[in-house]
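Colleagues,

Please find the record for the two-part complex below.
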Amino acid sequence: MSDNGPDMEAVIGLEIHVQLSTETKMFCGCRLSFGDEPNVHTCPICLGHPGVLPVPNRRAVEYALKIGAALECEIAARSIFHRKNYFYPDNPKAYQISQFDIPIAGPGRLGEVRIHRAHLEEDAAKMIHVGSSGRIQGSDASMVDFNRAGTPLVEIVTEPDLTSGAQVREWGQLLRATVKQLGVSNVNMEEGSLRCDANVSIRPVGSTELGTKTEMKNMNSFRYIERGVEAEIERQKQLVASGGRVIQETLHFDPSTGELHSLRSKEESHDYRYLPEPDLVAIAPTPEMLAEAVGSLPELPAARAERYASELGVQEGAAQLLSVETEWAEFFEGVLATDEAIEPRVAANWVTGEFAGELRRQDDQSLADSKVGPAELGSLVAMVSAKRISHGSAKAVLETMVAEGSDPEAIVQQQGLEQISDSGELEKIVEAAIENNPKPAEQVRSGNEKAIGALVGAVMKETRGRADGGEVTRLLRQALGL
Amino acid sequence: MADDRFTSATAAGLGRLIASGEVSAEESLNAWLEAASGDSLNAYLWKADPESAVAGVDRTAVGPLAGVPVAVKDIFCTEGVPTTAASRILEGYRPPYTATAVSRMAAAGTPMLGKTNMDEFAMGSSNENSAYGAVLNPWDTGTVPGGSSGGSAAAVAGGLAPWALGTDTGGSIRQPAALCGIVGLKPTYGAISRYGMIAFASSLDQCGPLTLDVTDAAVMLGALEGRDLMDSTSVGIEGGVTAPTAERLDGLVFGVPTELIGEGVEPGVKEVFDRSIEQIESLGGRIEEIKLPHAQHGISAYYVLAPAEASTNLSRYDGVRYGLREDGNDLVSMYEETRGTGFGPEVKRRIMLGTYALSSGYYDAYYGRAQRVRTMIVRDFDAAFAGVDFVLTPTSPSVAFGLGEKTEDPWTMYLNDLFTVPMSLAGIPAISIPGGLAEPAGGGNALPVGIQIAAPAFGEQKLVEAAFALETAIGFDGSPARSGSE
């Protein structure tokens, strides 16, 4: 045991709010929108007028069932809505319709993290505080935009199974990819259609008890969450090591400064006075609805990574990278489809390695914006596989493709990069190289095989890289009598 | 003076006059607007402007209700028309939409006469909790009309409307109907859409008719009932409801919960009730004593459940979007000033009761326990209806009491609902019809006594048939009220 007390480990659980991409709101017929003029998508129901009643959105229920199925959750035979009561201007009825003790989806799992539950609820309105602080305290005025009020949400709560910021990021990205693939949400963190809160605590390694947790609110990227979580773990460890005690509070992580600020302590927390919602009947999915939710599931990222690795022989790292983002997986499969001769392992390396790297190098292009389609990259990889161009030339061609979007075949033709496949022609160049470089040739003949490198270089220079390195070496050895 | 060719008829009778072409819808509306304009009972909070109301009459409407105007309790949202639920907090509020029940009446061709006074947010049994003053009982203007649909009951009994829409949460249609000598019907929970009815206790609220006779109640219920896509708890009544025709009660069994009807009932009320029992028997019906063992706890359970739901239903009146706003230094003080000024004492009492009952740590002891009592009461009725067709009680333990007599003692006031609350908790239909007149316990003018008949869920047609036969046998003369006692 060190002077600083026992070694501590982090325990992290996540709460993820997913805005569903239904056409209309959770309990009324107003359209969902993002970025429209304030308060244009409202009605008496989502404004909380007297006498209005909620009517559940069937599509939202179906989407929640899909998420439940994808997370391998137990689906409740009859789940009920509750009212969660609190006063705030963004909460028009002064209660949020949510689910409490019987959520639509119970225990499940995604990857190595257990899911505690997933439930349906409605989103609050959006507040805009006028004034320098940007918060309600000290603002000159606050305005409410009810366009967002009543947007259907699924809140996914994990068990505290995560142990590091990096794991939070990786798992968060897997969850986002999974939900995205279901087609039930835009999962855009910057627009708030996916929001993640992290509950962080520490405990002595080996302990099974949970320490006091802090809650980190609503950050708009998983990279920030990773940094925030790491900063909070470090803060808690130092606090405890110096004899302090973690108090339960809500924190905000500022990615620009790397600092953590306390938003409110739990002593001020609300008593939500949960009440079974008398205006709604239980959600009792029919066997047909359940079958549809399970039957309509696409191949999800975790299963895809497994298939790429075990069936296609793709290296595990590349398989993970390709599976997290659906568009990358689709791109990869598009490359494979170009030519049967392309080996999946090779194609995966090209997609996740050279191609992804080139996009980053050239203005950090996104795949969606890239001028290179899977067919183009596929034809490039096929040329390499068929030894029509060298690996080195291919990288140069790729650079041009990413910059200009031209066809690789045309670039190769134009720049004359095709490898010299005529052995007779190559043999002549090899002989000339030996003749023009007598010194290394002599060294090789007298047993210093390493000296062959200079001769290979000379051939490559003469052919401007259009020769296959292996073939050149073979011909040189043959000519030198090895 | 209003033309009493129209105003002395029942609503169904007036509908026949209009349908036959004997009088026009405009004439009818004008006569009733004139009658309503003479409101000396404080029954109306808002009356239709004659010019625009007459201009709005749908001359193409046909059917038994076409042209028969209706008074609407001010708890129903009506587009562009002030709707306050008799609360200061909604002063000046004009809803952007209309309640389904009101739309259904309009679709049947009934113009709206006005919005009637009530206990604030339907909380009360005397109509003394209105922010806009008490309503007077047309039988004796020194007494209350009952509540919370007191304005609707007084308007119908006082000849200010042919019929009226009310709402009933724990007796708010039946008790004022009883105290005003008219008919009040609370349908099965779910029979009529609640959309646009300002919520008091959502799991109990149900709207229904206040009318001069059982036929009118059946006709109005027939127009109102039905599933509504805007209310996911609404289901309608299978087969609908039509005007009753039964003359006899042969083979029908009426269960009387003798234990429940104990010492709290005024002797005069008991007398009228006993007489109605004899009339049922003379029509061939049979009386059987039944037990509703948990019904006596109904009031206690109700006064936990209803305030609990009310406390969350009334949270939306926060000054942010509509209605009253009293400025404060910050958000919380704005809330406090607005709600402190806007709500009356009884509403505040119930919000506090309900908030407490739902608080973390108390939920099981109060709300949870009250729910269990409710379940037991449901089972009590299920067991009773296995052996009887109807349950029979007085509607209220007393006749109309004096203004101000019970305002200081909420519990005595709450006991008015002793016989009506169990049916509300069970969600079953119940009707109150006038059984006769009785002197109050302390002496004075003879006042109406209501007889309550309850039926199994969705048994409305059977219920109105039995009530119609009994009503005919009783032959109650409501006319003293029609001339008023002012």
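Chain A touches chain B at residues 44, 47-56, 83, 85, 87, 89, 92-95, 136, 142, 144, 271-275, 278-281 (CB under 8 Å).

Comments are welcome before we finalize the supplementary table.
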